[in-house]
Write a structure and sequence with these properties.
homodimer; alpha/beta; Arc Repressor Mutant, subunit A; Aspartate Aminotransferase, domain 2; Aspartate Aminotransferase, domain 1; 3 domains; 8-stranded mixed sheet; 15 helices; 38% helix
Amino acid sequence: MQKASSALLPVIALDRKALLPLHKQIYDSFRKHITHGSLRAGQQIPSTRALALELKLSRIPVLTAYSQLLAEGYCETRIGAGTFVSRSLPQQEPVHGRQPGRNQAVAPKPRSVARRAQWLEPYRPQPWLGGLGAFCVGQPAYEEFPFHLWAKLVARHCRHPHINSLHYGGPFGWDGLRAAICSYLRTSRAVRCDPHQIMIVSGSQQALELTTRVLLDAGDAAWVEEPGYWLTKQVLTALGCKLAPVPVDGEGLDVAQGIRRCSKARAAYITPSHQFPLGVTMSAARRLQLLDWAERSGSWIVEDDYDSEYRYDSMPIASLQGLDRCDRVIYIGTFSKTLFPGLRLGYIVIPEDLLGRFAAIRNAMDLGSPHLYQAVLADFIGQGHFARHIRRMRQLYNQRRLALVDSLRKRFGRGVEILGAEAGMHLAVTYPMRIRDTEVSLRAVREKLWVAPLSSAYAERPDKRGFILGFGGTPAVQASEAVARLKSLLNA
Amino acid sequence: MQKASSALLPVIALDRKALLPLHKQIYDSFRKHITHGSLRAGQQIPSTRALALELKLSRIPVLTAYSQLLAEGYCETRIGAGTFVSRSLPQQEPVHGRQPGRNQAVAPKPRSVARRAQWLEPYRPQPWLGGLGAFCVGQPAYEEFPFHLWAKLVARHCRHPHINSLHYGGPFGWDGLRAAICSYLRTSRAVRCDPHQIMIVSGSQQALELTTRVLLDAGDAAWVEEPGYWLTKQVLTALGCKLAPVPVDGEGLDVAQGIRRCSKARAAYITPSHQFPLGVTMSAARRLQLLDWAERSGSWIVEDDYDSEYRYDSMPIASLQGLDRCDRVIYIGTFSKTLFPGLRLGYIVIPEDLLGRFAAIRNAMDLGSPHLYQAVLADFIGQGHFARHIRRMRQLYNQRRLALVDSLRKRFGRGVEILGAEAGMHLAVTYPMRIRDTEVSLRAVREKLWVAPLSSAYAERPDKRGFILGFGGTPAVQASEAVARLKSLLNA
């Protein structure tokens, strides 16, 4: 007969109807008692026989639970004496009531994070970027995308995948897609590149982040367009760089002003084909000035060519990268505008001597992009669907922009100036009077109009007020009514 | 009649058989002459009529090319005088011969990048991670994955996608997948979490990177397991953090030694369920000590739970996060081992008060993960396929590990020690004598054996030599032959 032990029986709450196996419930109960301090180091626990009797169970689940507790070191056996809570466990303070930081009615006080994590404010989405529909910036015509065709390509790659497509793919991405992008860029964008200079990234946002990590240190200054793209500024801020806003005029970034304001900038971040948000095309003179500055100062040019595929009244503007004689340009592109943003695919054209640096950081960041969509996209380009889709969309967006411009002219007359409608998927309207564009944008959100306030694109004091209106996702027949609603919001 | 102009005719090389339209060829030629300095600012160019005559073309392509050159600002017209290279262009030095940095026989000299980009060496893949097959670490049994089923789910989500799945998805990822992961983690891993604490990331590598960006500054020290996972060290190094290697013994990370060696560490990066590479399970005592240290020092614990689904002789070990009473643990998981690495999906369980910080940095990094696989995976989990696949793989990997252990015992006898075969998809073998494991691994690569040298997992002087052998991708019937080949390499 087993000798009586001094073990107290802890409360083991069993739920025989629960999905969790009984042995797991027993194990969990003991572990909780131990870690919460109600069973203390060195304290004896009941024998498996005694516990099984008490719980009116067979001994099997109890034995299973005990062997797990022993294996994980919560308990130990002493020969002839029984089972005890391990003496090597540090003593736990008993927990009373609710635990800190969890499920409390009052939000927990945020603890301090790294200084570098405080360069950005905690995340709060911009309300006017929160929806889909009229004027949404960056929304392509989803309804016109050839999903039937796309789904076929996806299915083909998915049913019988090659083993290499399932494994880690490396920081540069899939060679088939790199080659397809390379020939596209050479032909359509006058980019000078070889396939091995192309890195596939998870969207142009990652391209901006990676480029900044490789080329700029915290504390370095960078020219940004004023006004300019929100998320370029987020990247630079997140990485501790100083923004040096340089005004944009009718010829694009004013290089002479940039040099006057901040000649020591390590890089210039620009959108020369279709400036975001004002839509200017950078003039040839400014391009050559900028290249000249980069060469003389040993600085870098980051060319974000985000929507240059769509140009309505002339040929697409050749890339700045193609003019560069000193390999000072990092060229960035994306499929978010030509296909859809949920794809999360973009690319960087990297100067030869920087390839190893970009790859090292990229590898540490995320080991590379997922494979499936890379393979599908390579086929989509290679089989001519990409070029066809762009041609169709150029016509469609041309109709949409003409309808929007027409509606704006009719409703507002000379009350607004329309900027940058020659290309891309958005235009800007500016007002001569000082409207509070942010307030109007917030009111518009409640009406499901997604107009971004122009002032939100400025790093310093805005010298223009108005809105950025996307037309890619706004069908021509809806333009007039949407413009009417925008006007009534302005008058409210 | 047009008056004779002083324009010299530049060399315009036309290829009538080329795919590039003639107007584009003319435009390109002029642009090149201008940017390369052979046509100078203010110099007159031929009239469209004269050039068309000279080139034996209709005037239409010439007119198109000229209008583009005018639109982009390369040229300007003076009324009554003709067309000129814009006087506003900065003068370009003529280019002679090849251009610097491109297509040269001699590799260009690398230019300096940011200091922070130099914390890592330029990328060079580890040879023993370069292939697939026997012993490859991190290779699951691809041939056993239910691709037929998977492809069906993919096809369903691809043919009629919801518009929200095509647009930008936000930094936390898709709610459906977050909920599915949350209930999986609560049930199977004893993680305490709500769905809104879960962020979908592009693999556990990105989770490590993001966590480090939020919690550690450059110069901060972090405990890493010695030996430990290569890529954790890469992330910390890439972000300027100091590695504080802490020895791993039979109970896991030696917390007391950690405190002795570097008490001011801001974080501990650990793999408590199945230590990489030695395979130890961290004991209960060490877990509680570590939590106690984190609480007292205000430091963080980064729990990388990369392969805990596979445990062969006992129940899976509950997560360390589930024991944490102070929200000091960041819990990281991945689908690279349970599904396949090409998926690039993982997750972080983030303490409530840090959510806004993680999201801000993630948003600046890449705006979130692609949607399709998130939706597919949520179905795969929700419909029970995930649990079924893990159960099947646990049996299969159990056979594979038994075959490998058996073969090692037969071939090497007591010549090696086998570590960490109780769980996961790899084990470690160590040798009593001092072998040069890196040299053997390099020889093995030539034989298509992918054994990682144990010494490569040490940050400091290795105290063990041997190999990390993956068995997930090594069928049981091949184990004996592969072990025999490894042995002959050792004897060579």
